[in-house]
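Hey,

Quick one before I head out. I ran the complex with zinc ion overnight. Inputs first:
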Amino acid sequence: MSDTAMKGRSIKGVARPSKDFGDGRTCIQDGCITKLSRYNKRDHCYLHAPVKYPRVRGRILPEGT
Ligand SMILES: [Zn+2]
């Protein structure tokens, strides 16, 4: 019997430097002073962020019914 050495998997991960979008940014919405994270690439706060997916209540009916 040959024992196989259990080598710990070394994760080859490329350390991704966190993107910095600038410090002290605020929501561009007029009148909004919500500060944005410097790592947030958006220009709006979470309240004013444009909604891509509208909330749909209930079931989503297939089109062309
Ligand atoms: Zn805002």
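Residues 27, 29, 32, 34, 44-45, 47-48 surround zinc ion (CB under 6 Å).

Talk tomorrow,
K.
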